[in-house]
């Protein structure tokens, strides 16, 4: 007991917070200071002086949340962002919602008015705890300074375990200033009561799944973001190759399976490949791994994969059977379940005989040949697709972030990358995500190439983060596909609203992005000619520092194939054969 008393250290709540973050492996924080979080920033100053933590000053708190999100997606670690009370906290909301819908582990720390002022409508007081309840995995309002070490340990455990997601810690200013007897809480030593995610799949259901696999003549693996978060890439590859099962992925599942593999069908869904969408409509067994059957993929619920038996594997029991009836539900960690399934298949000698699926593979090859993704080469101008193909050709191993819109879908179609090298906002569809997310990715991977593919509309949502990039010399490469429109909205107005183009033309009021970059001291080029494109991309990739390419692409290119809302996946618009 005497030894324990001697080990107790008298510190501020802010010191306990920063030291707890350090103990949980945090080396980078993205944030913005203000009155209520100044005690925390005072401790960050000391930690930076000691070389323990690096803080990145963003230009808007939404950028902090997206940077922490990009950091987390690309590493599998928890990303950390920090904001002050009131508008600082509310500016995090879009970023937290983005992370929540895509199951990204982020811990957001907000300053709050002193405890004595809570509920008085004090300056910059807002109930961020209540505001964020629907869009975080859990929230804390710290009322006792001594609980900070435990709360941090719980927050990191909650954010990173089970189905990952964001956690909010709201800290009143006087809690940061308070003196406490500090007893550190080490990572992994605290578990929240009542929170016990199921990790191992039910053995009986695994046997049932293997029986369905052995009977299938047209099996298909349908892989989502849950496979990325679980790190199940090797298990998916082994399952696919063992049984020669073709694989299609969601937008969030890109990279979970090698898209250059002969068994890859690329992405399915609203703007997925034609052969993937036909495959899901014709398969007789759908093995859904870490997916939620969202409307941009499954659209019509039980009409999706209407001829198939469904095996659904997911860590979140709320997702299993929610949007699509499931024949064999398996709740558990995707990597663990697939590993157990493979081990059991070897024990039982489960197999799919080649002649069993020969016709299926022939059919898929026919679809692949008949409906390839097209790359237009217009006589006057550059198509967006050929820009992305050239970019992917020159830098296939880069980390890619995107914004949201047509450019996002073209990038998803033509960029083929590995695990955790594809960062995009899928569930919320957040314009302005790409640039700050690229900041987080580059901070996490300073020696790797990080490329943000954006549109002229999306880029303007958070282009102030050029200031962050300039201040810290963060060497991201930005490719803006500039067509002078809010492209995806224009496409819908063209297809469904008889060309009534209201509030989508961006020609007037959009800055010259190269000149804007120059103001920040960032290298930039404007590209208009096909002959200039390869050299411009090569220059950007070889440049030692950040660089922006403003690529002027054809104005009216539509993104195809397209499954219209409410239609079956096999009913696609814009097919060419």
UniProtKB/TrEMBL annotation:
Catalytic activity reads: 2 pyruvate + H(+) = (2S)-2-acetolactate + CO2
In its keyword annotation, does this UniProt entry include Cytoplasm? no
Q: Which residues form the Thiamine pyrophosphate enzyme TPP-binding domain?
A: 403-551
Gene3D superfamilies xref list: 3.40.50.970, TPP-binding domain
Q: How is the cofactor bound?
A: Binds 1 thiamine pyrophosphate per subunit. Binds 1 Mg(2+) ion per subunit.
Domain Thiamine pyrophosphate enzyme central per the UniProt entry, residue ranges: 206-339
**Sequence ranges assigned to domain Thiamine pyrophosphate enzyme N-terminal TPP-binding in this UniProt record:** 12-129
What CDD domains does UniProt report for this protein, alphabetically? Answer: TPP_AHAS, TPP_PYR_POX_like
Query: In terms of domain of life, where is this protein from?
Result: Bacteria
Q: Which UniProt keywords apply?
A: Amino-acid biosynthesis, Branched-chain amino acid biosynthesis, Magnesium, Metal-binding, Thiamine pyrophosphate, Transferase
Q: Which SUPFAM superfamilies match?
A: DHS-like NAD/FAD-binding domain (SSF52467), Thiamin diphosphate-binding fold (THDP-binding) (SSF52518)
Q: Which family does it belong to?
A: Belongs to the TPP enzyme family.
Q: Which NCBIfam families match?
A: acolac_lg (TIGR00118), PRK07418.1 (NF005651)
Q: What is this protein called?
A: Acetolactate synthase
Taxonomy, top ranks, is: Bacteria, Bacillati, Cyanobacteriota, Cyanophyceae, Oscillatoriophycideae
């Amino acid at each position: 007991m005497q030894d324990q008393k001697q080990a107790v250290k008298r510190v501020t709540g802010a010191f306990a917070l920063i030291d707890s973050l350090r103990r949980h492996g945090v080396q980078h924080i993205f944030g913005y200071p203000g009155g209520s979080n100044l005690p925390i920033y005072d401790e960050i100053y000391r930690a930076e002086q000691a070389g323990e933590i690096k803080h990145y000053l963003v230009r808007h708190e939404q950028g902090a949340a997206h940077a922490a999100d990009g950091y987390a997606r690309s590493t599998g670690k928890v990303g950390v962002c920090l904001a002050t009370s009131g508008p600082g906290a509310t500016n995090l909301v879009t970023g937290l919602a983005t992370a929540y819908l895509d199951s990204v582990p982020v811990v957001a720390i907000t300053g709050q008015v002193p405890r004595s002022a809570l509920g008085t409508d004090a300056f910059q007081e807002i109930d961020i705890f209540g505001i964020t309840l629907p869009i975080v995995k859990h929230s804390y309002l710290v009322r006792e300074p001594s609980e900070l070490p435990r709360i941090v340990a719980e927050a990191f455990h909650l954010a990173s375990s089970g189905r990952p997601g964001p956690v909010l810690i709201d800290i009143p200013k006087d809690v940061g200033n308070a003196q406490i007897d500090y007893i550190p809480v080490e990572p992994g030593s605290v578990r929240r009561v009542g929170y016990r995610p199921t990790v191992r799949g039910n053995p009986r259901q695994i046997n049932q799944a293997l029986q369905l696999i052995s009977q299938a003549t047209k099996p298909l693996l349908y892989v989502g973001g849950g496979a990325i978060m679980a790190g199940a890439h090797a298990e998916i590859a082994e399952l696919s190759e063992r049984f020669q099962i073709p694989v299609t992925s969601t937008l969030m599942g890109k990279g979970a399976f090698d898209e250059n593999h002969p068994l890859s069908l690329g992405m399915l869904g609203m703007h997925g490949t034609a052969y993937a969408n036909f495959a899901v409509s014709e398969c007789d067994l759908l093995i859904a791994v870490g997916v939620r059957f969202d409307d941009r993929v499954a659209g019509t619920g039980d009409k999706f994969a209407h001829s198939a038996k469904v095996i659904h594997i997911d860590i979140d029991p709320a997702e299993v059977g929610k949007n699509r009836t499931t024949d064999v539900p398996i709740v558990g960690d995707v990597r663990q379940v697939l590993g157990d399934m493979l081990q059991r298949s070897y024990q039982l000698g489960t197999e799919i005989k080649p002649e069993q699926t020969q016709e299926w593979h022939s059919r898929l090859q026919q679809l692949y040949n008949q409906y390839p993704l097209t790359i237009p080469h217009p006589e006057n101008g550059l198509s967006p697709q050929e820009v992305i193909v050239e970019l992917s050709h020159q830098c296939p191993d880069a980390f890619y972030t995107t914004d949201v819109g047509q450019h996002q879908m073209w990038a998803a179609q033509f960029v083929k990358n590995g695990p955790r090298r594809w960062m995009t906002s899928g569930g919320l569809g957040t314009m302005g995500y790409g640039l700050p997310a690229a900041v987080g990715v580059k901070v996490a991977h300073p020696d790797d190439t990080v490329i943000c593919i954006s549109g002229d509309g999306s880029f303007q949502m958070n282009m102030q983060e050029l200031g962050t990039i300039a201040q810290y010399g963060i060497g991201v490469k930005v490719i803006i596909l500039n067509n002078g429109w809010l492209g995806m909205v224009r496409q819908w107005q063209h297809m469904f609203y008889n060309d009534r183009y209201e509030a989508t033309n961006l020609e007037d009021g959009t800055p010259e992005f190269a000149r804007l970059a120059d103001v920040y001291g960032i290298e930039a080029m404007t590209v208009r000619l096909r002959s200039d494109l390869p050299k411009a991309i090569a220059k950007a990739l070889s440049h030692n520092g950040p660089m922006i390419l403003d690529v002027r692409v054809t104005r009216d290119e539509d993104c195809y194939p397209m499954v219209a809302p409410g239609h079956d996946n096999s009913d696609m618009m814009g097919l060419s054969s």
